[in-house]
Automatic annotation (TrEMBL):
It comes from Acinetobacter lwoffii. This is HTH cro/C1-type domain-containing protein. GO terms for molecular function: DNA binding. InterPro entries: Cro/C1-type_HTH (IPR001387), Lambda_DNA-bd_dom_sf (IPR010982). Residues 51-80 form the HTH cro/C1-type domain. It comes from the Bacteria.
């Protein structure tokens, strides 16, 4: 057997092993249950060895084993062999659902990543938690002082305090304005991202299975 054929066989075993493991997990079976159902074989001490070897892609896989896996897992042979990412057999609804899911999956992942990056960037510009606490305390202080600002005795005795309170009130207002601008900027950033995603950008898709490039027949 040529080196090219050996390499191809190894790739095929890897693909079938990978997809067999995925199909077993989708079917909700552990290795012990799978081995008992596929080979009707029981071994309490080494029950997972045969399934593990198959799923690792290191062993040659017999055709009847592939057939039995499709039967036990309820999946299509195309899924096991890597031709299709459609798991169900003869299920048109599942086929279309899978196509829709795969078509939007890439866009959703990309949009989520961009959204998280934008939010993270915006949050980094927001004032720290201690600043918010200081703002609230300052606001309470200025409100208390304003209640006494109409008292002539208090006004005469604590004129400098009233002046400082006015300056503090002005700074609190500036702080709140800055915070509001940052929140608005975050909101606009997210809206812009969502609008760009809805503008008809080309959607990317990812397959559940590995693809194999089959050799093209040589021209005679």
């Amino acid at each position: 057997m040529s080196e090219e054929n050996i390499t191809f066989d190894r790739k095929l075993y890897k693909v079938v092993g990978h997809n067999a493991k995925l199909a077993r997990e989708i079917a909700g079976l552990n290795r012990k249950e799978a081995m008992q159902l596929i080979w009707a074989y029981r071994n309490d001490k080494m029950f997972a060895n045969r399934v593990s070897e198959l799923e690792c892609g290191e062993k040659k896989i017999e055709l009847k084993t592939v057939f039995k896996m499709c039967e036990v897992y309820g999946c299509s042979a195309d899924f096991i062999l890597g031709f299709s990412d459609e798991f169900e057999r003869n299920n048109l609804a599942a086929k279309y659902s899978g196509m829709v899911f795969q078509s939007i999956r890439g866009s959703v992942l990309e949009a989520t990543e961009q959204l998280c990056m934008n939010v993270s960037k915006s949050i980094s510009h927001l004032p720290p938690f201690q600043g918010e606490l200081l703002k609230n305390s300052s606001k309470q202080l200025t409100e208390v002082i304003k209640k006494h600002s109409h008292d002539l005795v208090f006004k005469a005795e604590y004129a400098d305090v009233l002046e400082a309170a006015k300056e503090l009130e002005k700074n609190v207002a500036m702080f709140e304005m800055f915070f509001a601008k940052q929140m608005r900027q975050m909101e606009l950033s997210m809206m812009s991202l969502l609008e760009s995603e809805n503008s008809g950008d080309e959607m990317s898709s990812l397959k559940l299975t590995h693809n194999i490039e089959f050799r093209k027949p040589e021209k005679v």
